[in-house]
Amino acid sequence: MPSSRIPGRSYVTRRALVEIVRAAALGSYGVTGLTDPRPSRRVLARLGLGSPAVQVSVRPALGIELYVTIAYGLPVAEVVRQVDSAVRHAVRRTVGCEVASIVIHVNGLRDALVPAPPTQPDVPAINAEPAMAVSEPAGPEDAPGPPPARPRRRRRPAAGSQPPAPH
């Protein structure tokens, strides 16, 4: 990187900062999602009219407020510390300015091992066998027989050992 500064200005939109913070927070170990406790703001997020889980203020200094859910069973303080570090690093690396303050609200715990409910009710179970169409009845020649016998393998004596004595 060049050590001298290039004259000029660069602008980073608030939306870009929100996306940088969102990616850093969701990429952190233990974070299962970003949510806002206020239902009206969650509706706005679903409509694409805002991101209530991440709030960025740029005046007087860069401040960030996050609402996260954390995986159940993990130490909350460690996860929050890691999110703080990841967000500060991402903003410093991409934008080039320091974050003055980060406020992280833990909005809840979520069991990360429980799968999400299926989106389609007609989805067959994973272990279900697929249905097979039979065009003609099976005759005796199609009946399955006993499985083929596997040949036995003889053990070889280890090098330098005596063969077993005959009985």
Report on the architecture of this protein.
By secondary structure, this protein is α+β, with helices and mostly antiparallel strands. It has a domain at 20-110: 2-Layer Sandwich (Alpha-Beta Plaits). Helix content is 24%, strand content 16%. The chain has helices spanning 14-26, 39-46, 76-94; strands spanning 31-34, 54-57, 63-71, 101-110. Strands 1, 2, 3 and 4 form a four-stranded mixed sheet that branches. Strand 3, helix 3 (76-94) and strand 4 form a beta-alpha-beta unit.
Number of strands: 4
Form type:
elongated
| Main sheet specs | 4 strands, mixed
Which H/E pattern describes the elements? Answer: HEHEEHE
Instruction: Assess the beta-strand content as a share of residues.
Output: 15-25%
Compute the average pLDDT.
76
From the alpha-carbon coordinates, what is the Rg to the nearest angstrom? 31 Å
As residue ranges, the low-confidence spans are 116-125, 128-135
What would you call the quaternary organization? single chain
CATH fold assignment of the domain at 20-110:
Alpha-Beta Plaits
Task: Give the C-level CATH assignment of the domain at 20-110.
Answer: Alpha Beta
Q: Total number of helical segments?
A: 3
